[in-house]
Design brief:
globular; single chain; alpha+beta; eight-stranded mixed beta sheet
Length: about 190
């Protein structure tokens, strides 16, 4: 089942622009939608998932009323793989997800006052990315029952996900080929 996992601390992604043209193009597109900001990045390690570590990372951008997540690693974020279709970057897509931010500021011990990013979304996208890289495909118009609430909360209402084209991110032409953004949308059982 795809579901939440243990909390993991943020680790800063570092890269040299000339070595990561796909990642740089995706980051510029997300900043175009969410405003110029430094995204929060999580390098993913094998202890986060049930499969070998396949997905490179997940990034989160803070929008006015939500977090905007994007996977990195389903497309060619570093260099183009020689035997890939030259017009498509890797699998040709990355997943995105929007998670509503709290309407009220919660009390925190964090001196910077930064709002915590919902870790369940990072783990869910990591697991979804790993399953995708193992051969499963989830395309717009499809749904998935992950076997329980996607937030890991036993009382959670979001027990399925749907897939749609991200409404704010059109297909992106990168130096490594085209990348499209498929948004993962949490759904209730009734939906």
């Amino acid at each position: 089942a795809v579901g939440p996992g243990p909390d993991r601390s943020e680790r800063r992604l570092t890269h040299v622009s000339s070595e990561s043209p796909g990642m740089d193009a995706i980051e510029a597109a997300l900043q175009g939608v969410n405003g110029r900001q430094t995204a929060k990045h999580w390098l993913l390690d094998p202890s986060m998932g049930l499969l070998d570590d396949l997905l490179e990372s997940v990034s989160a951008y803070q929008a006015a009323d939500h977090w905007h997540f994007v996977t990195l690693g389903l497309s060619n974020i570093w260099q183009k793989v020689a035997d890939d279709d030259p017009t498509i970057s890797g699998l040709g897509f990355e997943y995105t997800m929007r998670v509503r931010r709290p309407t009220r500021r919660r009390w925190t011990l964090n001196r910077g006052g930064d709002e915590e990013v919902p870790n369940w979304a990072i783990y869910f996208l990591k697991r979804l990315g790993d399953v995708t890289l193992e051969g499963a495909r989830f395309l717009p118009g499809e749904t998935l029952d992950p076997g329980g609430p996607i937030t890991g909360d036993d009382d959670g209402d979001l027990v399925a996900v749907g897939f749609v084209d991200d409404p704010t991110l059109p297909p992106l032409d990168t130096p490594n080929g085209v990348v499209r953004f498929i948004q993962v949308v949490g759904m209730t059982a009734a939906q």
